[in-house]
Design a protein that fits this description.
The chain has 429 residues and is of the alpha/beta class. The protein is built from 12 helices and 15 strands. Strands 4, 5, 6, 7, 8, 9 and 10 form a 7-stranded mixed β-sheet that branches.
C-alpha cells in the first residue's frame, strides 16, 4: 500500500577551529577578547588583594582606648546601648585628664557627647540576655572637641617617613612578602594623633618586591633615593618584632625594636608577653603604640632627623638667587628681596608641657627675651616634652643667658636647647 523509500544519509562536516574563528564576525571576536581579559584581571586582582592589608584612614581625631564597661539591662540591645553611653562619658573624663593633667572635666550631656564623637571601636565584647561586657575605643572629632579642650587642631609633624615593619618568627624574617600580624597591627594603628607622619602601604602589587625584609640590610643611597621617591617619603622607619615561643601553644615573648634610616640606627627597644597565640594580635597593637612613642620621643630630642644623603635636590641659596636676579634686572627696576641678617640664629628649644597652659606660658617667656624675633611650638606633646622653633638675633650663648635670667636651667646641644624650671630652694629651718 505504501512504497518503501531508500534510507537517506546526511553527512555533517564541522569546520576546523581556524575556520570557525574565521566564521565569527570581527565585533564578536573583540567582545570575546575583552571578556577573557576582564576575567584574567579580576583573578589577578583577587590573588593580589589577599596579600595586602590596606591601612585604615587616620585623621586627626582624639582617641581613647581601653574603656571597659559592664552593664545589666532588661535585654541585650538595651544593655549594649547603655554600655556605649557609659563608655562615652568615661572616655570624655579620661581625655580631659590626659590633656589637662587632672580631673574636673566639664559635665556634658549624652547628646553633646554624641555630637563630638566620630566613631566607636569595639576591641572586645560579650553579649548576654541582659548583660553587656566590652572594652571599647572612643574617637573624638578634633575640630569639635579641640576648642573645648583648648588644644589647637594644627600640630607640626615630622617629614613623611616610610614604614617597613619586619617580623622575625621561627628564624625567618618577613615584611610585606606575605600577610602577617605585625603588618596588620601597623595597618589598623591610628596615626592621626601622632607627631610622626607615617607613609603606610597596603603590601600589594609591587610592594612585596620593593619593601621586603632584605631591603633594610641595604646601605646604598642610590636605591634608597629611588625607593623613597616612589612612595613620596623623606626617610624610612623600621619597626621590628621578634617572636619567641616557650612551647607550641604556650606563652609568646615579643621583643620590639624601633630602628630608623638606611643605616638601621637604633632608637629603642622593649619586650611584651602574651599567654598564648590568641593574644598575639593585642600584643602587636600595644607594641605599635609603644614604638610610636619611641619615635615621637626621638623626634623631640633631635635623634629622628631626615638623612641629608637621601635628598636629591640641591638647596637653593637665597643670596645667590637674589644676586642672579639683580644682574638680569634693569637698574631702575632693581628691588632686592629681603633676606635674614647674618646674625639671625634658628634654635630648637625643648620644654616641658604637662598641660595646655604650659604651652602658652613657655612661648610667652621666650618671646619676652630681647632679640627673639619669633617663637612657636612646632611639635606638641601634652604630658611630655614639646619643641619650640625660635629665631634669635645674636649668638646662642646670649639666648641661653636670657633664659637663665628668667629662671630656667638650660642645657645646650648644638642648636638645640633643653630648658626646665629651676626648683625653688627650701627655706632655712
Amino acid at each position: 500500500m505504501f512504497a518503501k523509500r531508500a534510507p537517506v544519509t546526511v553527512s555533517l562536516t564541522l569546520p576546523r577551529p581556524a575556520a570557525f574563528a574565521r566564521l565569527l564576525s570581527r565585533p564578536v571576536q573583540i567582545i570575546i577578547a575583552i571578556g577573557i581579559g576582564l576575567a584574567a584581571a579580576a583573578l589577578f586582582a583577587q590573588m593580589e588583594g589577599e596579600r595586602g592589608v590596606p591601612p585604615i584612614a587616620s585623621g586627626g581625631d582624639f582617641e581613647v582606648r581601653g574603656v571597659k564597661v559592664d552593664v545589666f539591662a532588661k535585654d541585650a540591645d538595651t544593655a549594649r546601648y547603655a554600655g556605649w553611653r557609659m563608655a562615652q562619658r568615661q572616655a570624655w573624663r579620661m581625655l580631659w585628664t590626659r590633656t589637662h593633667g587632672g580631673g574636673g572635666a566639664p559635665a556634658l550631656s549624652d547628646s553633646q557627647l554624641e555630637a563630638m564623637i566620630s566613631g566607636i571601636e569595639v576591641e572586645y565584647e560579650q553579649n548576654g540576655p541582659n548583660r553587656y561586657v566590652a572594652t571599647l575605643g572612643i574617637l573624638f572629632d578634633r575640630a569639635r572637641t579641640g576648642q573645648l579642650l583648648g588644644v589647637s587642631g594644627n600640630v607640626m609633624r615630622s617629614p613623611p617617613l616610610l614604614v617597613i615593619p619586619v617580623m622575625w618568627d621561627g628564624g625567618s624574617a618577613v615584611s610585606y612578602e606575605r600577610t602577617n600580624e605585625w603588618q596588620k597591627a601597623w595597618a589598623r594603628y591610628r596615626t592621626g594623633d601622632s607627631a610622626i607622619d607615617y607613609v603606610r602601604v597596603a603590601g600589594s602589587i609591587a610592594d612585596p618586591i620593593l619593601l621586603n625584609a632584605g631591603q633594610i640590610g641595604r646601605r646604598g643611597r642610590l636605591w634608597w633615593r629611588v625607593l623613597l621617591d616612589q612612595y613620596g617619603a623623606a626617610d624610612v622607619v623600621i619597626p621590628i618584632v621578634r617572636l619567641e615561643r616557650a612551647y607550641p601553644g604556650g606563652p609568646v615573648t615579643a621583643t620590639f625594636t624601633a630602628r630608623y634610616g638606611p643605616d638601621d640606627s637604633l632608637i629603642g627597644s622593649f619586650s611584651l608577653r602574651a599567654s598564648n597565640d590568641s593574644g598575639i594580635a593585642q600584643m602587636m597593637d600595644e607594641g605599635a603604640r609603644r614604638i610610636d612613642e619611641l619615635y615621637i620621643r626621638a623626634l623631640n630630642d633631635g635623634r629622628l632627623r631626615p638623612d641629608p644623603s637621601l635628598i636629591i635636590e640641591e638647596p637653593v641659596d637665597p643670596n645667590a638667587l637674589a644676586i642672579e636676579n639683580a644682574a638680569e634686572a634693569p637698574i631702575e627696576a632693581l628691588d632686592l628681596p629681603t633676606v635674614p641678617t647674618a646674625g639671625t640664629t634658628s634654635v630648637s628649644i625643648q620644654f616641658d608641657t604637662p598641660d595646655v597652659t604650659s604651652v602658652g606660658a613657655g612661648e610667652s617667656a621666650v618671646r619676652g627675651i630681647s632679640g627673639v624675633r619669633s617663637a612657636a611650638t612646632s611639635s606638641l606633646a601634652l604630658g611630655g616634652t614639646s619643641v619650640m622653633q625660635v629665631s634669635f638675633d645674636g649668638p646662642i650663648d646670649v639666648l641661653r643667658t636670657g633664659l637663665q635670667a628668667r629662671g630656667y636651667t638650660v642645657t645646650v646641644n648644638g642648636n638645640t636647647l633643653r630648658i626646665t624650671r629651676r626648683q625653688a630652694s627650701p627655706s632655712p629651718q
